[in-house]
Amino acid sequence: MLVLGIDLETTGVDKIHDRIVEVGAVLWDTDLKVPVEIYSELVKEEDRPVIDSSFDVSHITPEMIDNYGQDPEDIISSIDDMVCKSDYIVAHNGLNFDQEMLQNFYKRYDHELSNEIWLDTRYHIDYPEMCKSRSLIYLMGYHGFVNPFPHRALFDVMTTLKILSNYDIHRVIEIAESPTIYLVAIVSFNRKDEAKQAGYMWEPDVRFDFDQKQKGFWIKERKLAMFDESELEESFEVRVEEEYQGKLRSDL
Fold first, then answer.
1. Which domains does the chain have, with CATH numbers?
2. How many CB atoms lie within 10 A of CB 38?
3. How do beta strands 88-91 and 118-120 pair?
4. Fewest C-beta in 10 Å: which of 20, 35, 101, 158?
5. CB-CB contact of 128 with 139 (8 Å)
6. How far apart are CA 206 and CA 215, in angstroms?
7. Are 20 and 49 in contact (CB under 8 A)?
8. pLDDT tens digits for the chain (252 residues)?
9. Is residue 148 packed enough to be buried (19+ CB in 10 Å), middle (13-18) or exposed (0-12)?
10. What's the chain's Rg over C-alpha atoms?
11. Torsion sign (Cα): 121, 245, 213, 203
């Protein structure tokens, strides 16, 4: 099977107003666990804002983009060619960032990104219980290797694919394709720390049909394929819901 790993470096994290400055894309053979095609380019979007100083870690300067950046139309054509060869797209935290950022990039140039399923190595892998964090830098160390150039797109996407290669790709696909459910902690304000310690996140703008009067709940997102009924065994009531109203922070 071939999957397409993608990583983006950007001027910031605003998915509407910020711009892509670098694309790394790797066509990866999941059986051989090796790259078969590699693409890495700086992106020259003329309307890009000034690169935020907080992104200096990438060491991508405006001068580099001006001198070596490629035309967005050429970038899109190259990505489309690789997407056509792949069965799935892979990214780390792609569902929260890279996917929408790339979709908006395509729209700016009157193109549409293929509606391919994204596998997200942050959310779609059954990591061991002792693996406590889902940050890319932690996962890299946990799996016993070092990324020599972090925050550069090609090296981050290779890191993502190397992490993925430790796991059963068919299980990852099963998780990605399963429905999302929401575990809701029914706790009073005085017991909120119990929910927080159990891994629930406060979502202030969310409502559920079972209580239209309340806005804001402690929530865990789960893929149904990863759900274990033992997660209902808490010191407080836990509801399982399929839909919510409002916004999750991951939607913003």
1. 2-176 (3.30.420.10), 179-251 (no CATH)
2. 15
3. parallel
4. 35
5. no
6. 6
7. no
8. 999 999 999 988 899 999 999 999 999 999 999 999 999 999 999 888 776 554 567 788 888 999 999 999 999 999 999 999 999 999 999 999 999 999 999 999 999 999 889 999 999 999 998 998 999 999 999 999 999 999 999 999 999 999 999 999 999 999 999 999 999 999 999 999 999 999 899 999 999 999 888 999 999 999 999 999 999 999 999 999 999 999 887 665
9. exposed
10. 20
11. positive
The answer to whether the beta carbons of residues 217 and 236 sit under 8 Å apart is no
Beta-bridge partner residues of 23: 8, 41
Residue 24 backbone phi and psi in degrees, to 5: -120, 130
